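Quick one, probably user error.
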């Protein structure tokens, strides 16, 4: 009987499996194959365009070639977009959720106000914030209402940069961080289960030693000296994104806090816990899955950010570039489909680094229940 149920379930899911296999994973595979070709140029839109296999040349050129400098800066921008969005949206959303969880007067009104930006599209948000951050208006003229001077900061077109670093040093630094992470995790695992932590500890030590001895050979051979950093023009886009998604994270945390039983909170208060102590030692640990979900969702959103940047700064503002915008311009303006496909695969792999561990962890938790 159980086998019959499994067969029926499989047959029910089979059409969906086929559709997902073809239109999701099949297209991903086709995109990867295109990224390994030289499809592009003037004849790219011909009826039967010529596509020659060139291996990983497009990927190598994106990370080491002269023409890939713009993509590398866009990749750095994407990292800052992600980090700032996570810090801002999760931090502000958590504070708002804690305030509303204590049932202030007008709670329903404030919840609606804080959540309203999430209902807007990125195009609408980008248009609104573009007006607010205009050099001759918006935020720049606020000081004049209290007798101050008109500000002249170019929120969306500034060419200044902070946190600058040499692209040539990125690979050794990344490998050192990976080595340190593996060593820390290995030592932590060895204390709990001695035999289990060696598979992380030994590679961590080996990677650290290899980078210390030969870490500068590969970057000097492949990577050119380029100065990249956090362009201050991207700060305006980060402000708009945080404004839009703070209410979303507030709703996530508020739902988590609401799911905690009132008896637990009352018991903690009877035992002498303060409001700060309750959230620090009881509420926040219980909503840890909410935090993980917020990090995954916001990281994924920041990696595919396109319409907000397009609406606020247009497609040709190099200071506020993003790999998703670069992919669009490379593919549909320059008709370089192979290079655009390579950028798409790189974004897909970065997103998978966040999503796959989360899915594996969730699957293991369900199996242990």
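Nope, works fine. Designed sequence:
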């Amino acid at each position: 009987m159980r086998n019959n149920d499994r067969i029926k379930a499989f047959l029910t899911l089979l059409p969906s499996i086929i559709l997902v296999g073809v239109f999701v994973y099949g297209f991903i595979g086709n995109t990867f194959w295109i990224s390994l070709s030289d499809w592009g140029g003037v004849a790219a839109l011909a009826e039967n365009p010529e596509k020659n296999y060139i291996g990983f040349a497009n990927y190598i050129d994106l990370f080491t070639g002269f023409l890939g400098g713009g993509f590398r800066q866009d990749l750095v921008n994407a990292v800052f977009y992600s980090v700032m969005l996570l810090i801002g949206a999760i931090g502000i959303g958590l504070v708002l959720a804690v305030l509303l969880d204590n049932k202030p007067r007008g709670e329903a009104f404030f919840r609606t106000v804080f959540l309203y930006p999430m209902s807007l599209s990125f195009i609408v948000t980008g248009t609104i914030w573009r007006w607010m951050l205009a050099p001759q208006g918006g935020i720049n003229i606020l000081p004049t209402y209290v007798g101050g001077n008109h500000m002249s900061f170019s929120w969306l077109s500034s060419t200044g940069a902070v946190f600058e670093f040499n692209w040539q040093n990125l690979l050794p630094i990344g490998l050192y961080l990976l080595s340190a992470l593996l060593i820390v995790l290995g030592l932590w695992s060895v204390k709990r289960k001695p035999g289990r932590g060696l598979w992380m500890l030994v590679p961590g030590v080996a990677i650290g030693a290899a980078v210390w001895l030969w870490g500068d050979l590969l970057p000097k051979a492949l990577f050119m000296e380029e100065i990249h950093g956090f362009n201050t023009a991207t700060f305006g886009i980060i402000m708009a994104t945080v404004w839009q998604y703070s209410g979303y994270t507030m709703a996530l945390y508020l739902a988590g806090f609401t799911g905690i039983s009132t008896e637990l909170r009352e018991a903690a208060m009877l035992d002498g816990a303060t409001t700060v102590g309750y959230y620090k030692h009881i509420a926040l640990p219980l909503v840890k899955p909410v935090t993980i979900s917020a990090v995954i969702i916001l990281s994924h959103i920041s990696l595919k950010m396109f319409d907000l940047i397009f609406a606020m700064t247009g497609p040709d503002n190099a200071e506020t570039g993003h790999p998703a915008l670069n992919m669009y311009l490379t593919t549909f303006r320059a008709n370089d489909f192979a290079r655009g496909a390579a950028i798409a695969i790189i974004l897909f792999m970065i997103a998978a680094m966040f999503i796959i561990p989360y899915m594996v962890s969730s699957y293991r938790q369900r199996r242990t229940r």
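The CA atoms of residues 143 and 149 lie 6 Å apart.
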